[in-house]
Specification:
Radius of gyration: 16 Å
Low-confidence stretches: none
Number of helices: 2
Distance between the termini: 29 Å
Strand content: 35-45%
Largest sheet: 4 strands, mixed
Amino acid sequence: MLALQHVHHIAIIGSDYEVSKRFYTEVLGLTVIQEVYRAERQSYKLDLALHGQYVIELFSFPNPPARPSRPEATGLRHLAFAVADVQATVDALQKHGIEAEPIRTDELTGKTFTFIADPDGLPIEFYAS
């Protein structure tokens, strides 16, 4: 058995770095730990934290290929964040012009959840904690 401790980070490649950076920092509220431009790769690497914990690497690359997300494609399905109040989260997202799917209830846990899409269509879930 491997001795895994926790998820270290999630890496995301955005098609428009500035748009993705704004979304993850200004809409989702993640904080910047470090931002590096790697000239040899024509690429940004932005390390983002949630409540001081490193969670996401946001990358830019010239002309990245699209990755299908819908219909359900093989690979990473979605990124999920725990929230105290799903409806309050939906209301806050609407202030940024972001529409969420209708709030649903998980039939196994009884908890509510909803989805939005990031600027590149990556599904992001907000799940009641």
